[in-house]
Design a protein that fits this description.
Layout lengths: L18 E4 L2 H9 L4 E4 L4 E4 L2 E7 L3 H4 L3 E5 L3 H10 L10 E2 L5 E6 L5 E5 L1
Parallel strand pairs: 1-4, 5-8
Antiparallel strand pairs: 2-3, 3-4, 6-7, 7-8
Length: 120
């Protein structure tokens, strides 16, 4: 299909909202609330904190959540890393590291094994 719009004429994209799998909305909410997220909507579950919005879909298969991930940009990643370390949720194979492409990042697994990569 051919389009008449060029890349420079396309509308600007400004936000993405990941959709993560949840085996139990209430359990997911409890886990994310320790990170400061609050409910924006119950069904489907939508959580917010600062400029981040996470949507959750009901899922009965745990292997699906274990293959879902998202990346979240963080200001002052060192403090956020310390906070997550104190909660004992940092993935043991993904501590705070400076990547070859220059970003600092670390990862955690949520209660359903969705991978969250925090970066700065």
């Amino acid at each position: 299909m051919e389009t008449t719009l060029t890349h420079t004429k396309l509308p600007r994209l400004h936000q993405a909202c990941p959709v993560l799998a949840s085996l139990d909305f209430e359990r997911s909410y409890q886990w994310y609330s320790q990170l400061g997220f609050h409910r924006a909507h119950d069904h489907p579950l939508v959580l917010k904190r600062d400029d981040v919005t996470l949507h959750f879909r009901a899922c009965k298969e745990s292997h699906i959540a274990a293959t879902t991930s998202c990346r979240i940009a963080v200001h002052n990643i060192a403090d956020w890393y310390e906070f997550c370390l104190n909660l004992q949720i940092v993935h043991p194979k993904a501590p705070l590291t400076t990547q070859p492409w220059g970003l600092q990042e670390f990862a955690v697994l949520d209660v359903d094994n969705n991978l969250l990569v925090f970066f700065s």
